[in-house]
């Protein structure tokens, strides 16, 4: 370690920045990819069909998401209603089903 | 019945082919009948690393298309009688490999070999998928660098969901971490992710650490798998990897910085 390194040593090392970034990213991507049950895509398609019987919502208006932690799973449905379908503009309906 | 090993990574340039060559040669040198298959259709390179590029007559795709028999396409290694190489085709046809064709060849090879090493191409396209689909074991080659670690994690997700073992609800593929191009000096300076960091992020069983080494380039220059170079650090590290894969308990080497003497520290540089 030379003299310059001594003065620089208060800055965080790049390896620890890398580790922190990776831990956040990997945890996020694993949640997104690995723990989503396979039926989610089908569920989303069927829900869209049902809702479209009553309200003309956009293809991307429904998101279905499954979150898991150690002792529970939460199935979250997020439906964005179009502005002209309701008296109030742009309402969001969120339903969450949880299983302990 | 052969054990099928896929050498994979997601990211390119991390050392998959170097590792496939080294591990297949290492297994063969210990008396196991081994075949190593290049799945990188269109970008054949294993033959160069193995030093048999001038002996390629027929390739993997020829065998799949029944244009040649397996025995015609397999190249017997000149250094070790237990080792055979099945080269990739140079065709540009991306769909040259079929799932059924690959399965048929692996089944046929299974009858005569102990280990089948599948050298996966980079990426997550067809070649990479087929290389890992039938695997029993996966060696995930990773550099201590953010993009490589991330891609390895993606590959782990695919191994756990898109392989035959996953689809048929069999015992999952055994996954091993192989950290390559490791520089203990840079780790000590805080410039590089450490073995522990990578293991903590990927939570994988560590098969070995291959140090950044001049021996790897000189091995590929001459077409000799680096594992043969038993004087070199990388060669010894790969020998250890083969031992560990075969179930021996071998302590990890090349993980900590080599201690330099007083004169070495004065004049040595890095």
Q: Give the total of beta strands of chain A.
A: 3
**How far apart lie the N and C ends of chain B?**
48 Å
Oligomer: heterodimer
Low-confidence runs of chain A: none
Indicate the radius of gyration of chain A in whole angstroms. 22 Å
Describe the global form of chain A. elongated
Give the averaged pLDDT of chain A, no decimals.
74
Give the rounded overall mean pLDDT of chain B. Answer: 94
Report the helical percentage of chain B. 40-55%
Strand count, sense and barrel status of the largest sheet of chain A are: 3 strands, antiparallel
Name the helicity range of chain A: 40-55%
Please indicate the percent range of residues of chain B in DSSP E strands (runs of 2 or more): 15-25%
Number of helical elements of chain A: 3
Q: Judging from the principal axes of the Cα atoms, what is the shape of chain B? A: globular
Order of helices and strands of chain B: EHEHHHEEHEHEHHEHHEHHH
Spell out the key features of this protein:
heterodimer; A: 100 residues; alpha+beta; 3 strands; elongated; B: 270 residues; alpha/beta; 40% helix
